[in-house]
Amino acid sequence: MIERLQISHLRNLTQISLEPAACNIIIGANGSGKTSLLEAIFLLSRGKSFRHHQPKRYIQHHQNNTTVHAKLNDSRTLAIQKQANATTILRLNQTTVYNQSILTEQLPTLLIDPSTMDMLEQGSASRRQLLDWLVFHMKQGFHPQWMAYQRS
Predict the structure, then answer these.
(1) CA dist., res. 56 & res. 11, Å (int)
(2) What is the pLDDT of residue 12?
(3) Can you name the CATH fold of 2-107?
């Protein structure tokens, strides 16, 4: 669980620091940053935005990068910095890591939006992808096997 979250230069969030509770309700006027807050958590967990694939589209205007940092309740820290040129810096406990899956493993997220229901009507590929995602977080040795399967 996230104990402290810091976000800088993501959309309309210039500098924000929060200490979320176990259960949170996010309310506010249109354009106040509710979705941007969720986008920041997703960016930290997955290394990408659920709204745009190009970092320059979510990095605040006239800024070179955006940073999301979280301290988890067991004192681990996670951070991601996305540069306008799409360079990414990932950190786990102040140590640079080179695979997004390392942060994803520490902070699992699942995006549920209206298009999520499409997986019920589409082919089996999206359902298989969801099952792979769930097993990734539940079974310790799955990630190396999953990566080997993807390469083959």
Answers:
(1) 10
(2) 95
(3) Rossmann fold (3.40.50)
